[in-house]
Input
Amino acid sequence: MNFQNKIKGLCLLSLVVSFWGLEAQQDYIGAGNDTGLTITSSHNYNGYRADNTVNGSGMDADLMEASRLLSQATMGYNMEEVERTAAMGLEAWVDNQLTLGPNYLRPQMDEIWEQIYGWNIDYYTNQYLENNPGAPITEEILESFEEDIYGPWALNFHYAWWQNTILSSDQLRQKVAYALSQIVVISINSDLVDHGDVLSSYYDIFLKHAFGNYRDIIGEVSLTPAMGLYLSHYNNPKEVPEENLHPDENYAREIMQLFSIGLYELNQDGTRKKDAQGNDIPTYNNNDIKELAKVFTGLGAAGVMENPWVDTPFFGMDWYLADKDAPMKMYQEWHETSEKTILGELVLPAGQQGMRDVEMAIDFLFEHDNVGPFLARQLIQRIVKSNPSPGYVARVAAAFADNGAGERGDLGAVVKAILMDVEARTCAESQDEDNGQLIEPLLRITQLGKAFPLDCRKDSVYTINGEDFDETPCQEIRYWLNGFSTRNRLRQSPLGAPSVFNFYLPDHQPVGEMTSRDLYGPEYKIHDSSTAINYINMVFLSTVWNYYGGSWDNDINEDLGWLSLNTSAIEPYAENPEDLYNYLDILFARGHLSDRQRESLRDFVNDQPNWVDNWDKTRSLIFLMMISPDYTIRK
Output
């Protein structure tokens, strides 16, 4: 990569030039018009020419623009992807990503579990043979081994999620699915923690429909056994007063409050409608919850997993016996068949089939005017910025209402509208102090995993005082982060929210200046002294600490080894540190590296003793960049 003299390329400066004998002409720095101009600079670093600052050949505006887009639209990226995106053009990159099919989680999880299961069988077999030399391994003994093997559970889901996130090419789909998983929430903080297969299949709903129709998402989610357990409409009975049985209202409330229409009536720009007295207008009341709860009655298991007791599903059957890959089915005898009125508008007639009630109710919610702006604002917050203007919300909501071909709810059109909007792409917006967001801690870690190759080592022999240590390469690199490490340290992991309200609410306002200026900062809900220090420590272990890839806790089996960054490709840049600063500016700061931060990087390098090599310098600079506001705050 060729680095020239740098002027911030994201925002090209307007320039009026005039000189003797020629009329004044207006242009911008970087347009290439330097004829007749004499340009000087304080120094010509590494032999680069001062006139490159005006003629444009010294700028990396296209790379900075590409990095900014990729930061919004992916789970992480490297410099090769930045260069490829810049060469394609931003809109062309988005269009290409919209054509890529999904890399699903469930097949990945099944493959990982099969490996782990085999390792466990081998372990118990070897242990048995050590204690019983020459003894045969009978069927009964194998069955006893199997009884001691736990899983698949959330750990295996996390392994698959990280493997998929780091290696998949459908990065826009992966990012949108991750965003949707924070809106239509289930969590491992429930009995679902024991079911890695269920968690993986649920996440695949978002991968499947990330560019599909939102109606399909809420329809499929409503019938999945995972949501049935989490929000308790699995085995939800009709009303039987004499037995004190009443429909559970949990899912009915949350499908309205969190998954579709929200709490208050909205204008299409996301602002709240007001009544004659200037008060917010609620979208529903407690009676609406009770009426909708009747719709989601009679749903139970559609199949039975292999077990010695039950071979036919029935209403009331324990969730643990259910076939969790099959959508719940309707048991009409347990469905509330009385007339139901939803939001005072939709009347479901008495005696109607249960699934017809469900389909009509979901269709009605999906068609509600609130859904477009309600979903638009949250997706913008998860992808681009915390405080979208009403105009931004309105433009995205319009894409939700009609994708240009008369289709409502097309998420592909919504995502493109979010990424190509003036508030996501223009320079003036990136410089507005109210624009931007604190990047989620989990996404800061995935970016590190994507930015550089990872090496795998095992059976390493550590030595002291800088002496060499033996390294045996792994046969295969597995990006199996256990997930619980990020949840415990950063309070965030995939499908690891503390409740159905996600890790943070979209309207969270951190105490202080942001609240006084009526600005929202959802991610600050989990940003405090503990998570900030833990994040710094995680990055330190993954970059500076020589012998340990601290973010990847994958020591489940000795064959896995441990992972560490491979920075060999950029270590030569440390010979001319300005090149390395510029590289990291593009890759991590998206072209927004401040003069103050650049100067602190220079001071750090200048203070290093002569024995510090390029390997140490490079990793230390990555560490300092990743804990800087220029990286953690995306503009």
